[in-house]
């Protein structure tokens, strides 16, 4: 791919054809990624090291932590961010290959429909991620986790484990849920903006 295509692709990703899309990019790229990258590491970075069970043995701690965290929140949310970006990136790659200017996207029905479809896909992916997050992490992190260690052939089947910084993790969970909801609202608003521009209610850029 030529440098011109790459430049068009990057400009499309950073400056979508709608005002709300540009705000979504700013929110998604700066606030949400910064929150996950910086604060997420501070909250979850050393969780496995401080996760302890009774009895406090390495094999029990490791087994129970893997049971407690089938996937670490940082990895889940990083995958969510990447996957949600795919539909928009695919559209802007198509636009770059076809040499479509950003200001022309909303002028033609096919391009506008294609772009709107990519926004719909973002909404669906965010909704699926929201549901998966509920299944994996719930809405609250308890201070005590009851672990089933029967598979280790111990004399006991259930052991108590201490979850470090559970209150901070609960706050962080709620924040990530909130970010997902905000993103979905922005996507819905972007579809509304596209529809209004297509109907002539709003002037095109």
Automatic annotation (TrEMBL):
GO terms for cellular component: connexin complex. It holds the Pfam family Connexin. One of its GO terms (molecular function) is gap junction channel activity. The chain crosses the membrane at residues 25-44, 75-97, 109-132, 171-192. Residues 125-194 form the Connexin cysteine-rich domain. It is found in: Cell membrane. InterPro entries: Connexin, Connexin_CCC, Connexin_N, Connexin_N_sf. It is a multi-pass membrane protein. GO terms for biological process: cell-cell signaling. The keyword Transmembrane helix applies. Keywords: Cell membrane, Disulfide bond, Membrane, Transmembrane, Transmembrane helix, Transport. Its main location: membrane. SMART domains: Connexin_CCC. PANTHER family: CONNEXIN, GAP JUNCTION EPSILON-1 PROTEIN-RELATED. A connexon is composed of a hexamer of connexins. Belongs to the connexin family. Beta-type (group I) subfamily. This is Gap junction epsilon-1 protein. The gene is Gje1.
